[in-house]
Structures are given as C-alpha cells and as structure tokens.
C-alpha cells in the first residue's frame, strides 16, 4: 500500500517555442521540449526543469521516463544525496536534483543559495548567442544585439568561420566575443584558426574538436583559451581536460544537477581551470540553479530564456546583458 504522506515525484514535458530559430552546427530548432520534475511532500511542491542532451541520445521522453523510474525510490525515502548514485549524470538527474533543492528551500523558508552554503547571489553579465548563419545574417543579428548585449557568443561550423567572426565584429565593434566551434574544428589546425581570430578580439573558443578526440589538442598552443564543453560533463572528465583546455563549460543538464555542478566547479578550480557556466535552451526555471553555480565563473552563458518566444512568469530579468532573478522565488 502506498504511503499517502510519502514524497511524490512526477514529471511532465512542456513545449516552448524558440524566438525565430536557434541554429548551431548540428542543426536548427524552432522549439524546445523541457521536462519539469515535481516533488510533492508535506503540502509543498519543489520543481526542477531540464533539457535533454540530444548529443547523448537523450530525448524529453527518455528524460521523463528516467525520472518516473526513480519515483518509487523517492517515495521510499531517497533524498537528494541518494539520487546522485541512483541516477547517472544527465538531464533527468538535473531535474530531480533541482526539485529537491527547491523543496528543501520551501520547507526551510530559506533561499536555495543559503542552504548550499553560498553567498547571496549578485546579478551577472551573460553572453547572448548569435546563431550560426552566413556572414551577412550573423552581422545583422550582431548589429541588432550589440546595443543590448555587451558579450556575444557566436556559433561556428568550421569552414568559413573567420568570415563569420569578421562579420560579427563589423556588426558589433565594441562587444566582447566568445565563439563555440561545436566540435567543428576536428581535423583543422586549431592553433592557426585561433591565431586568425585574434584580430577580432575573441577571448574564448569552446569545444574545437570532437569529444573523445581531445588528444588532438596535445601540443597545441592556442593564443586564445580553449574551453571544454562536450568533453567535460562532470568531475570524471576533468583529468582528460587538464592540460588540453584552459577552461570548462559547466552545464547542469550535463553534470546532473546543481549538487554535482558545485563539486565540479571546486574541483576544476583546484586543477587550475577557468569556469564558464552555460545552459541548454530552457526557461528561467531551468537556469535558476545554474545562476547560483555561475556566481564565480569567468564567463556566464545563461541566455536560454532570451532565445525563447516567451518565458515563465516570474522569470529572470535581462537588462543591458545583465541577468537578475525574479523578486519572487527561492533561487535568487
């Protein structure tokens, strides 16, 4: 017989339209399906949102099924720490982990940052993504964004990338630039490609080579720091990244939640790596835990809600490229 007072974990899939289309080297999206996990206990409900990591073969349906697969364990008393071993890293664990943090904050009447032993969060400057396109399109998009977003992140594809970056620089002459190769420089001369971008003020290059082929960076001396994204999911990947990358991009959907993200950040700093904290396409509910993990990051890329046609209410505010949590809520 089910204990009526036991915690109840459920999941649902929500579809959110993208503002226009979000395009990277792997394709374009006109919507994103997010998965919302809810844990109800003692009259309170904690929520967490996750987006499937498509390059891991995840889908919204598989994420929701994985969450349903631990519902009995949660009802029988499995807590946030137990979930770290009951579930593998990935989007499903992220949603459940966030729901546990949210529920605990509501039960304690304290913000999640206080429960995590963190300092009160401050507003953060976030990058704004310029989708992959031809140079003229990217220049126009950069010009439209330049006055509102002082830090731009460019999606690249390999062939023609120098022309794309040059076009964005024409459109946004004063913006800071970071670029995401999305593994598309595999087989290319990474050091030469990076050297060609120096003139345009690029300050970071994400994931130049395919994950698993990081050895291609052995001996590469890049004049611009390289950042591991797909190559660094959680702490288990740090040893492979050290010495090949100068930074890692922490995404909670990869790491499996705020719990692992905070531990990964500490371990990465100990290994001498700089930090970026990023996100998948998501609503403000999805980036709320990441906002806490990003407080000490050198680069922040939490523009997921800005790329949607609409966001949750209340949601984060984005003013002049700076993001701040809603006045209502337990994350900020």
UniProtKB/TrEMBL annotation:
Family per similarity comment: Belongs to the mandelate racemase/muconate lactonizing enzyme family.
Record-linked Gene3D superfamilies: Enolase-like C-terminal domain (3.20.20.120), Enolase-like, N-terminal domain (3.30.390.10)
EC number: 5.1.1.-
One term of GO molecular function: racemase and epimerase activity, acting on amino acids and derivatives
Mandelate racemase/muconate lactonizing enzyme C-terminal domain: residues covered: 135-227
Magnesium keyword on record: yes
Top-level class of the enzyme under EC nomenclature: isomerase
Name this protein carries in UniProt: Dipeptide epimerase
Origin species: Edaphosphingomonas laterariae
Active-site feature positions: 155, 251
GO biological process per UniProt: peptide metabolic process
Chain sites annotated for binding Mg(2+): 180, 206, 229
Cofactor stoichiometry and binding remark: Binds 1 Mg(2+) ion per subunit.
Cofactor(s) listed: Mg(2+)
Listed Pfam families: MR_MLE_C, MR_MLE_N
Annotated keywords: Isomerase, Magnesium, Metal-binding
